Amino acid sequence: MSGAGFLVGLHRCVGCGSCVLACRIENGRTEEQAWRRVLPLNLRRHPGGPTYFLSVACHHCDEPACLRGCPSRAYEQRADGVVVHHEDRCLGCRYCEMTCPFGTPKYDDERGIVSKCHLCAQRLDQRLAPACVAACPTEALRCLMPDATPNTATPTTETLPHVASDATPSAVTRTDVPGFVDPAGCRPNIRFTPPRGARRAALFAALEEAMRR
Amino acid sequence: MAAPRTIRTVCPRNCYCTCGMLVTLDGHDRIVRIEGDPANPATGGHVCLKGLSYARRVGYHDRLLTPMRRRQAGRDFDPISWDDALGEIAERLTRIRATHGPSSVLYYEGSGSHGALGGLSMAFWRQFGGCTTTYGDLCWPAGLEATRLTYGANLHNHPRLTRDSRFILIWGHNPAETNIHQWRLILDAQERGAIVAVVDPRSTDTTDAADIHVQPYPGTDAALALGLARIIMDAGLHDTAFLGEHAAGVEQYRARLADYPVERVADITGLDPAAIRGLALAYARTRPALLIAGFGLQRHHRAGQTIRAVALLPAVTGNVGVAGGGWQYANLASHCLRPLPLPPEPAGMRAIPVSQVARHLDTLADPPIRAAWIERGNPGSQNPAAPRLRAALSSLDLVVVVDQFMTPTAACANVVLPAKTLFEEEDLVTAYWHPYLQWRAKILEPPGHVKPETEIWRLMCERFRYDTTWFPADRIAYLRQLLPAGRESALEALMDRPLDLSEHGDVAFADRRFPTPSGRVQFASEEAAQRWGVGAVPEYAHLDEGHASALADRLPLQLLSCKTRDRIHSQFGNLDWVREVERPHVIDISQQDASARGIIDGARVAVWNDRGRIELAARVTPGIRPGVVHILEGWCHEGDPDVNALTAEGVTDMNHGATFYECLVEVEPV
After folding, report:
1. Reduced to 3 states, what is the DSSP secondary structure of residue B134?
2. From 3.40.640.10, 3.40.50.20, 3.90.105.10, 3.40.228.10, which CATH number describes the B141-329 domain?
3. Does domain B550-669 have CATH number 2.60.40.10?
4. How far does CA B471 lie from the centroid of its chain?
5. Residue of B6, B17, B28, B46 to mutate, testing the A interface (most A Cβ within 10 Å of its Cβ)
6. Are B541 and B223 in contact (CB under 8 A)?
């Protein structure tokens, strides 16, 4: 991993959707499609698999397919790896919708252009965590920065007695989990911690084992 | 144009978390950011999706911005002026009072918006000569009383101490959905090695992350608690020193435990004896151990005795007064405000149990109810027997509903008055999980023709030529006088941060002094026996409408209607932002029960009993205990307040609570 991205703590995420709403507010996406989604896996709690939630927006890939597929150079990869979409350069051709394997760019009918998560680059530049990360009530969602140390800084961290500001991910992070694949070799900058709890952990291990076979 | 600014306030919903919030407005008074207030150490700088959704809710397209009057025939409403609305209300109230007396008017207030100023409605009704109000509570009162009888007060440890627990037993509770900031602390404790055990007939986001999960029949928790205590004491794992010095009635209690051998408890609860033993030993052997009980296990008529039985476990194991340990039900440390100054109570006051509004609307005599004023609540969706309640409202001479949106209750009104939101009037807000009193700031002017309820009541007094000096001329001065004696100067500090004005400290009962009749933890309570006619020592008895009752032969499934993270009861469910991320509206049914009825996943089913019938989609899940079905409450998207068509208007054994979870049904494919 080299660029900025997200760390999703599957052991802490309860799929509440606060990240989706925080993104809407921060980026003024009141009526439009949300940039972030929460994908629930196995809400029925089928005994063959764990129940967990994938909170995803843009993965700010090292090899961004959106950027490669854009004829108008509306996409830019910043030095820190954040993939930014410049709306003023967008033709609305929607090629990026086709090339991105993760369904990240969102087309807006009224404006005739696409848009997507920019990792709250304006906040990162002020050393603030992205809005979705700052809002996460279980602190499941974190921001990863290119130097590979997790950026847990939120606007408020230093004043919280119970959140260590130097907190590091407590479990081994992994690049893929059942339910998430990188089919186009984009090298997405998203990492996961495996689910915790007797049931979730055992089922998750079984699922991984099955996928290996 | 004002300058962009960030203002500190508090979410006043009926929710454990009662989050401190920071709201940022741009120069046009538009909300551009909502964040948690880091100065509230319990909620830790976060809100939740509901708190965030205020950015949508305050200016939502279907918010009521003007008084509305229903047409003579039909369901349509027309906007009218305040003058016309209040004039018509006053005229009808006067006529009804002249014919039937003041107590023919029902004044119903729900818990939809917390704040001290809500009580000012009584400045009108007392001068009106009285009215009929409700007593009891739909939610939690039996457990409050059971805790008070046992420990003398409803206090518990500061939330931050959750992280110091080594064993967390969560009972009838789903904090991953309904107390998400507590869930964060539980996850922290788990990451530090704590074991998390959950007692819940359902599988939830909480049980998914648990190390131990047991799924008893709903309503059998008292037997499980007494069975656990028996195993613990038989194994000698109880805290003899604590019991010797700080407990009263232990001998009677031990005699009672003789009736609860593990085999019998397994039979009652439907659990494996080995699972019961395992839970008992794990809880008793790990210290400090925290027991968190939800409100769910007291929503049946044996509620109080159930909570008493469960609440004794921390005392048996000596986990009371211990950081990282304790009994958590509700923390009323912040409930320290002085009562509002109000006119003297007139003779014409009357009260009915809040869980039986529908029945009393239909049957109350001398005088009958002829008018209703409803605010901060949606009883036409959220109370037991909701369809009957709506029908009864529709037959009254006058129904006034004050709300922000056209709820199923408001649809029954003659006149609907637009309500303020949390951002549109100052107030003081207490909590029931953390110990903080918080200041609710006025951030925005009410939009359109909206008036705060306090102003509506003042205008009503003016119209009736009553004394209006009971109402605050200066809200800040008024709220200051509600602070505890000697702490009035704390008001400015409250505007700056949440304050714990209690003197209880972070560890509840750290001094082992219990404000009970004996000064000790009451394992036996004569007060319980005298006041509520229950056994002095808690015991288990079958529910009248439970899996072991005769009715179960015909209606074999126990229906639970639990709370979701997506709404506070029926609030927030109307917002598109919330609907986008909300849980589906289904009935959860076990594979076994579904197969026996020919129900497949996703099929539309009818759920019925002798009180009602509803239809919705089935979700066949291995996660729920066979014999139990579940529907999330509070769903009223298409004006369809589902689940309370089925629930009964029961009353709990203590303190006048409701019995939503004592509800047998049958399910069949449509």
Report:
1. strand
2. 3.40.228.10
3. no
4. 28
5. B46
6. no
CATH number of A5-212: 3.30.70.20, 2.60.40.3500, 3.10.180.10, 3.40.50.720?
3.30.70.20
Tens of pLDDT, residues B422-465: 999 999 999 999 999 999 999 999 999 999 999 999 999 999 99
3-state secondary structure B418-451: ECCCHHHCCEEECCCCCCCEEEECCCCCCCCCCC
Least CA distance to A136: which residue of chain B? B46
Phi, psi of A148 (to 5 degrees): 75, 5
CA B587 – CA B567 distance, rounded (Å): 17
Residue A1 has pLDDT above 80, yes or no: no
What pLDDT was estimated at residue B540? 98
- In sequence order, the β-bridge partners of residue A114 are A107
> Residues A36, A57: contact at Cβ < 8 Å?
yes
What would the DSSP string read from start to end of B384-402?
A: TTHHHHHHHHHTSSEEEEE
pLDDT in the model for residue B511: 97
Confidence tier at B251 by pLDDT (50, 70, 90): very high
Rounded-to-integer distance, Cα B614 and Cα B326, Å: 41
pLDDT score for A148? 45
From chain B, pick out residues whose CB is under 8 angstroms from the CB of A155. 35, 45
- Chain A interface mutation, best of B30, B57, B208, highest count of A Cβ atoms under 10 Å: B208
Give the residue on B whose Cα is nearest the Cα of A11. B209
Phi, psi of B424 (to 5 degrees): -115, 10
Chain B contacts of A39, Cβ < 8 Å?
A: none
- For the four alpha carbons of B229, B233, B235 and B236, in that order, the dihedral sign comes to positive
Per-residue DSSP letter, B499: B
Q: What per-residue string of b and e applies to B373-400 under the rule 16 or more CB within 10 Å gives b?
A: bbbbbbbbbbbbbbbbbbebbeebbbbb
Q: Is the pTM of this model over 0.90?
A: yes
Q: Give the dihedral sign, CA B340/B341/B343/B345.
A: positive
pLDDT tops 50 at residue B374 = yes
CB under 8 Å to B263, separation ≥6 — which residues? B273
Please state, in angstroms and as integers, the Cα–Cα distance from residue B368 to each residue in A57, B99, B522, following that order: 58, 11, 42
Q: Out of 3.40.50.80, 3.40.640.10, 3.40.50.740, 3.10.450.330, select the CATH number for domain B68-138+345-422+446-474.
A: 3.40.50.740
Contact B279, B286 (CB under 8 A): no
Q: Which of residues 27-46 of A touch B (CB under 8 A)?
A: 28, 30, 34, 38, 43-46
Round the average pLDDT of chain A to a whole number and report it. 84
In this predicted model, what pLDDT tens digit does every residue of B311-362 receive, in sequence order?
999 999 999 999 999 999 999 999 999 999 999 999 989 999 999 999 999 9
Q: How far apart are CA B427 and CA B444, in angstroms?
A: 14
Does the pLDDT at position A145 exceed 90?
no
Query: Coil, helix or strand for A1?
Result: coil
A181, pLDDT greater than 90: no
Task: Report the distance separating Cα B414 and Cα B401, nearest Å.
Answer: 8
Mean pLDDT of B189-196: 94
B 51-70: CB under 8 A from A? 52-53, 55-56
> Nearest 5°: phi and psi at A165?
-70, -15
pLDDT in tens, A93-118: 999 999 999 999 999 999 999 999 99
Q: Which of B373, B461, B434 is nearest to B409 (CA)?
A: B373
Q: Is B502 helix (H, G, I), strand (E, B) or coil?
A: coil
DSSP E strands in B155-194: the ranges are 167-171
